[in-house]
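Methods: example folding runs. The two proteins below were folded one after another, and each record is reproduced exactly as written to the output file, sequence line first and structure-token line second.
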Amino acid sequence: MSLVSESATATLSKRVAQLKHQGREVIDLGQGEAEDLFAPPHVQEAAWRAIRDNQTKYTPTAGTLELREAIAYRFAQDNGLRVQPSQVMASTGAKQGVFNFMMAVLDPGDEVLVPAPYWVSYIHQVKLAGGQPVVVPTSPQRGFKVMGDTLRQYLTSRTRALVLNNPNNPSGAVYTREELLDILDVVLSAGVLVLADEVYDRLTFDGAAHVSMAALTSEAAAVTVTVNAVSKRYCMTGWRLGFAAGPQELIAAMERVQSHTTSCPNGVAQRAATAALTGDQQAVVALRHELDARRRAMVGGLRGLPGLQCWPIQGSFYAFPSVPGFESGAHFAEALLEATGVIVVPGDAFGMPEHVRLCFAASRTSLDRALERMSVWLRPGAATEGQRR
């Protein structure tokens, strides 16, 4: 376990709680959830109904048939992905779905290609499964996207899988169909599996359209496990209900892994998720519109601030500016917290230490206050000048 450190966002959450306990006022732009938005009323009612009807016992490891049918239905409606309930499993959040995949497919020493910037847990989950993460660099100038020609340079005889997070956390990058087909060509020629993490698939902006890797071709579906969740699109982060779909033999192997860790996901959350996936989706549309307004407010507030460079955001609910005016993202984040009480996540947690991540799913009040404090702190002549390069 010496190779694995605590999740950077979990460490940050502990620090937020500690600062609040000490009486410090903080504005948290580090946590990856909508601060003031909650599950739709019909979803909450489904949970209450499950409790009242005593639907609180164990379910099958992969989730109830009703939930798996709902997941298959939503994949077909939203992603053009046709799967049977036997190709679907539920988990305790998408994070467990990723872990199940790594444990099911990796042998000791197998390599997994992980484009940077990456979600904080990919690297450690590969290590926990005995694999070797291979970080593949991207650049903001190329939209934080990995291209097929770059991937080829990192393939070896030990390459087992590619992690593709689309839309990307933390950069907000969204891949086009053509870019995915380019990646697919490399994957198929190398005999590599794909773990497609698509939890932000409904949260895209400025005309960007999400395309599922597994829906591209039948060949893509045969090598791809798609992970998603109710967490982001329905504002259900704390309900801890994720799901995965893919080739039946891979899903069965992932189910075996889960049977020896957590068993089934929470039963009440399963009923709520079923209601979310099969019910009216207008709340998802409204959420995207609201987050788009907050995205515009954040981008407008960040652009022009000295010491920062903001890049386009097409999806998810994060900004990932670079901080060329500072020694590193970690230095910027620490100085910002000390001076203003605003919390952001250093980019080294995502494999790009010259950046920081800010969540624009915080409330509008929190965003306005945070941007005002940052503007004052970063303005020419402010105390921060002595902390810059």
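Second run, written to the same file directly after the first:
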Amino acid sequence: MSDTSMPLEWTAQQWQNVQQTIYEEARRARVAARFLPLYGPIAADAETVPAEVLGVEKPTDPCACPEDRLHVSESEPLRITTIAVNVPLSSQQVAQPDLSAALSLFRRAANIIAHVEDALIFRGASGLPSGMPPVYRVTGGIPNHGLYDRGHQTKVPMNTGDELLKAVAHGIAELESRGYIGPYALALSSELFVISETPNPGTLVLPSDRIRPLIEGSLVRTGTLPPKDGVLVSLAGKPVEIVVAADIAAKFLQVSAEPRWIFRVSERFVLRVKERDAIETLIHI
């Protein structure tokens, strides 16, 4: 490991503890990455990736049969997004044998990055968390829309567990009608998740226990969605994926004049929606 990556005062084991702490915290805090397939890592210096949008086109040969055919659009490539948080450490914090203060700061930085990642994946630029400390920076490609805004819409009431179950069943039927089979992943807002974990009146049966056999995939909660909405995604054939250019990690930058040891925790990724028909957005009315 080069000197630009690891401060000279730390041992290889201490630096490994820092990187492991960051990785584990991000893995714990992420939501979308729990169910969306990951593609990569790709070249660390890549700035774009092919969009690979699947569609149907008319063949150039008028005698071709059938009349239409599948194709991958060579549309504008997707720009990779970078999320970064700088972590300044005092000389005393750097010198701690167990790095307890430093690990707390690195852990918090990883948590913030994971939340911003989910906000971008589910809602795009409009979903960036307003309550998050403004210590992060997003550069590169910032998507205008996330999963929530790209899906087809199922608009039904979802005030009770039974209504939520019916909404999910309807969403699955819509996906199947477009040729997208299970397993499915279901992301629910905090309010809908509470409804899914509240027993039906007069029984001990949880709505989530009836939903899971339908989706055959992950059921997760996210605070990035509107209060009573959800997103249903078909996972068969990987129509939606997260392209990873560089997984989350820390890098030592410099010693400032204060002095502070400045580190940067960052990751580089992009959401690739190859088939938007594989997404069904559940909207409460």
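Comment on the second run: The chain is about 30% helix and 30% strand.
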